[in-house]
Amino acid sequence: MRNAKCVMRKYYASRITQLYNHRMETRRSARIILLTSSLSYRAEPFLEAARKLGLDVTQGIDMPQPLAAYWHATLPIDFKEPQHAAQDIFNFAAHDPVQAIIPVDDGATVIAALACDLLDLSHNSPDAAYAARNKARMRELLSLAGVPSPTFKVFRIDDDPCALAVQVKYPCVVKPLMLSASQGVIRANNADEFVKAFRRTSYIVRATGSDADESSDHSHVLVEDFIPGFEVALEGILSQGHLKVLALFDKPDPLDGPFFEETIYVTPSRLSDAVQQAIADCTVRACKALGLREGPIHAELRVNEQSPWVVEVAGRSIGGLCSKTLRFDTEGLSLEELILRQAVGMEIDSLLRERSASGVMMIPIPGAGILKKVEGIEAAQQVRGVTEIEITIKPDNRVTPLPEGNSYLGFIFARGESAIEVEAALREAHRRLRFTIVPELYLSRQ
Questions:
Q1: Of all helices (H) and strands (E), which one includes residue 83?
Q2: For 241-278, how does the pLDDT look when each residue is reduced to its tens digit (9 = 90+)?
Q3: How many CB atoms lie within 10 A of CB 34?
Q4: pTM
Q5: CA 84, CA 27: separation in Å to the nearest integer?
Q6: At what angle do helices 109-119 and 82-95 cross, to 10 degrees?
């Protein structure tokens, strides 16, 4: 079976090389595949970057085949079946060779790795991509490698939380294994809080999972020690295991629970050079432990007097619209352009100069219900340093706060001479916004 697979791979590799060389004789641009969901914030920035670089793009979108006819240059794939999705990409590339496969969101990282493995393209291994998605596997590998990270236990969602409450150390944090944006993440300070948190997180896991989804573990939750300290986020890019730090974000608002809604990111960091180097070194160790070697990474760490501690490392770039905070070189290149440049073999080292202090506020959702209107946008845009405000949830749509929710009302962006100025601008702009959210129960009575 292995010999047959090797023969097939060599045949397709030869065929792909022939087709690729032929196409390169008739056109200069390379083709990439962007893997994304149809609702992703991140697709358009990557598409714009590809247009600037003259790259041909096929979007591998998580959607049924009939719907794909309404989308231009689209390859429909099923994110819930990674092996089948990778085979679909492989079959596509046999007739239309690609130079790189870029996963835009968490749900596509394993698929990209599997497809790159079939096509012998440079990328992270499937095992590494999975480890960066599954928090339990991540914790196992970090622990084995001695990378500072919380002590943890894994339980089934149908376990009795009353029986588990005597097995854990407090304070602790209950987490789904494969959800993002802090969805379902709850701190518990004692046994009573743990029982409530475990039941609530388990409900969220059940509600977001499906027996047909082969890409996610929806039957377990992670319980880990709460690490005191403040949080930072590191944005980087890997090349053959070497980490290039693109930005280190301070998170000035405390993230101590009971829920962990992120708000402000500001760069450059105001931490000392020594602490910043320790954070970078810890991230390098974490990437090595997980097996991550190629492409963008987004790392979250907590820092205290002992050391940096790894919360997680994702094998993709920063989420939401937050990449707008980063502009590089004198031309203001986007993060997405840097990622695509590296993916197709273009030089990026000379471009890795962040231009100025910048930041973003992910506008929190203050309560559940129906968003009716947003006021004060013009006043907020007048704040010195604010460059853009984007409300991503439209009026008359349902909004759900953490821990059940996994989105924000929108984003505020700012630039300035210093991180202090940027943070102040973000807070003032947010203060000027007013959100009207009507409880659904109220609407049902009208």
A1: helix 82-95
A2: 999 999 999 999 999 999 999 999 999 999 999 999 99
A3: 27
A4: 0.89
A5: 31
A6: 50
